[in-house]
Amino acid sequence: IGHFLTEIIYRALAHAVPHRVIAASGGTPATMNVFYGRRNDGRPWHSVIIRGGGMGAGSRADGHHVAIFPANGANTPAEIFESDTPLIVEKRELLTDSGGPGKLKGGLGRRVVFRVPDDAYAPTPPVNLGIQSGRFRHPPEGLFGGKHGAKAQFLVNGTHGNPYGLTQLKPGDVVTMDAAGGGGYGNPLERDPELVERDVLEGYVSVEAAREQYGVVIDPETMKVDMAATRQIRHSTS
Question: Does the pTM exceed 0.90?
Answer without folding.
Answer: yes
